[in-house]
Amino acid sequence: MCSSDLSAPAFADPDTDFDNQLQHYGIYGPHDYNPYIAKIVCHRLGVGVDKDATASAHFLSINLPRGTTQVQTYQFLGSAIAQYCPDLQGKLQNIPGT
After folding, report:
1. Predicted TM-score (pTM) of this structure
2. How many Å apart are CA 91 and CA 4, to the nearest integer?
């Protein structure tokens, strides 16, 4: 018995998925940098360095490329939490302007 499906199993790369999501928002950067910053944001939120999304957005605004808008900063934050620390989704409550 011979299988006609010889394709290798697909393994998702969460960092590539994250980079692809950011590109939809017009946020670009080195492949390893944006996921690295996203994981730091999750850690900061998780251990209480940043008490809320506003504090995390401030951290991101310093570390994302010059010219990144406030909207893009919050899109990055929301994507980071969804990808790397979904247990912290509640931290996205009460974002200014929402």
Report:
1. 0.84
2. 48
